[in-house]
Amino acid sequence: MKLVKLLANLGYGSRKQVQGMFREGLVTDAEGEVLYADDVVAHEAIRVEGEPLDPPQGLTLMLHKPRGYTCSTKDKGRLIYDLLPPRYRDRAPVLSSVGRLDRDTSGLLLMTDDGALLHRIVSPKSRLDKAYEVTLAEDLRGDEAARFASGTLLLESDDKPLLPAELEVRSPREAELVLHEGRYHQVRRMFAAVGNHVEALHRSRVGGLALGGLGEGQWRMLDAADLDTLFNVP
Ligand code: URA
């Protein structure tokens, strides 16, 4: 791929802006030799203003999403992209979240520009369960775990009952819920269906992958070993 297209695809600017960067001599190789728009150079040898180029396509990362951020490229208010290097919002192919977390949900969010990987993660065949820590407005009644595990709970405006889900009660108003599917506002709607209200919601795990020590608002790239961990579901 021509360098000018590569840099534009990585979000460094429009083609015109990137052409300008070449004219100004801002794009060099590792030795500082100026590169030209038509040069063909290995990705890892390219520097922009002396800095290594952003990762090529295949970028996959894990973000510890804080509450108050929306999973969108252009909503009003704070966006998950505000937590990443600014160029990541403008990459092509697009770097998108794998599914969504509500604005007021915190926790583990995967993002990738690899469409095949995204489909593999969300495919039911991969059987990647998701664990949520839930804080409730009302004390649990005691029948919720059985109702969630029943496989017969039908949420309002759905036409198919939910798959069985596991609820582990931690305290009268705190629990962990493990889901094997992902429906719109699922956790909040499940607790509404049993007469409660979710006050705080946090996703702690997707498949075999947990946040580890990643702090709120922080992110890190995932490598092949992380993806093995993600898909390694017992
Ligand atoms: N279920 C919800 O209700 N919200 C989320 O963000 C994720 C799962």
TrEMBL record:
<dbReference type="GO" id="GO:0016853">
    <property type="term" value="F:isomerase activity"/>
</dbReference>
<dbReference type="Pfam" id="PF00849">
    <property type="entry name" value="PseudoU_synth_2"/>
</dbReference>
<feature type="domain" description="Pseudouridine synthase RsuA/RluA-like">
    <location>
        <begin position="61"/>
        <end position="193"/>
    </location>
</feature>
<protein>
    <recommendedName>
        <fullName>Pseudouridine synthase</fullName>
        <ecNumber>5.4.99.-</ecNumber>
    </recommendedName>
</protein>
<dbReference type="InterPro" id="IPR018496">
    <property type="entry name" value="PsdUridine_synth_RsuA/RluB_CS"/>
</dbReference>
<keyword id="KW-0413">Isomerase</keyword>
<keyword id="KW-0694">RNA-binding</keyword>
<dbReference type="InterPro" id="IPR000748">
    <property type="entry name" value="PsdUridine_synth_RsuA/RluB/E/F"/>
</dbReference>
<dbReference type="InterPro" id="IPR036986">
    <property type="entry name" value="S4_RNA-bd_sf"/>
</dbReference>
<dbReference type="InterPro" id="IPR050343">
    <property type="entry name" value="RsuA_PseudoU_synthase"/>
</dbReference>
<keyword id="KW-0698">rRNA processing</keyword>
<dbReference type="InterPro" id="IPR042092">
    <property type="entry name" value="PsdUridine_s_RsuA/RluB/E/F_cat"/>
</dbReference>
<dbReference type="InterPro" id="IPR020103">
    <property type="entry name" value="PsdUridine_synth_cat_dom_sf"/>
</dbReference>
<comment type="similarity">
    <text>Belongs to the pseudouridine synthase RsuA family.</text>
</comment>
<dbReference type="InterPro" id="IPR006145">
    <property type="entry name" value="PsdUridine_synth_RsuA/RluA"/>
</dbReference>
<dbReference type="InterPro" id="IPR020094">
    <property type="entry name" value="TruA/RsuA/RluB/E/F_N"/>
</dbReference>
